[in-house]
Every structure is written in structure tokens, then in C-alpha cells.
Specification:
alpha+beta, about 100 residues, five-stranded antiparallel β-sheet, about 30% helix, 5 strands
Length: about 100
């Protein structure tokens, strides 16, 4: 079992499409989401940046999604230009400082 650590899931070169890219990874089960049934309601709003609720849905997804690694460790989504998964119970700042 590996020690949970921060991992990059989408770099900033995707620009305004980062939320859509992450949503597609969750929807397509490339990222395992513990509470998939709770967050799939955001998928339609994240299907295009032209959607008026795109940024609200992205914020809600980041707040509510709980992602898992293969060992069952839980992560949350954080964005600071790039999009990261960060182990629950730690902060993004702990890793960048």
C-alpha cells in the first residue's frame, strides 16, 4: 500500500476545459469516485464551458467529489492553475510549501 500523495490530474494547458476534462475522467471511470451517484448531477453542466452553470458545477464538483486510489485512499480535487487530487485530511498548501 502506497502512502497517499498529491497527484496532477489535469494541467493548466487545458485552460477553461480543465473542468470538462476532469468530469469526463470521472464519468468514464478513469478516476474512481466514491460518491459517483451524488456528483453525476454536475456532468451535464460541465459538458461545455458555454453552459451558464459550468463554473458553479465545477465548484460544486470540487467541493463534493471524493476520489479513490486503488488502495482505497480518499482524495479531494483542488485547482491552482493545474488540477490536483489531494489526500483527504491534508491541504494542497502542505505539498507546495
Amino acid at each position: 500500500m502506497k502512502t497517499p500523495t498529491i497527484e496532477l490530474i489535469c494541467d493548466s494547458h487545458h485552460g477553461i476545459y480543465c473542468p470538462q476534462f476532469v468530469m469526463e475522467q470521472i464519468r468514464d471511470k478513469q478516476l474512481i469516485c466514491k460518491n459517483y451517484n451524488e456528483v453525476e448531477k454536475y456532468f451535464n453542466d460541465l459538458s461545455t464551458p458555454d453552459n451558464e452553470f459550468y463554473w458553479d458545477a465545477w465548484n460544486d464538483l470540487m467541493i463534493n467529489a471524493i476520489l479513490l486510489d486503488k488502495d482505497g485512499n480518499e482524495y479531494y480535487i483542488d485547482q491552482s492553475d493545474d488540477v490536483w487530487v489531494v489526500p483527504v485530511g491534508t491541504s494542497f498548501e502542505d505539498y507546495i510549501n
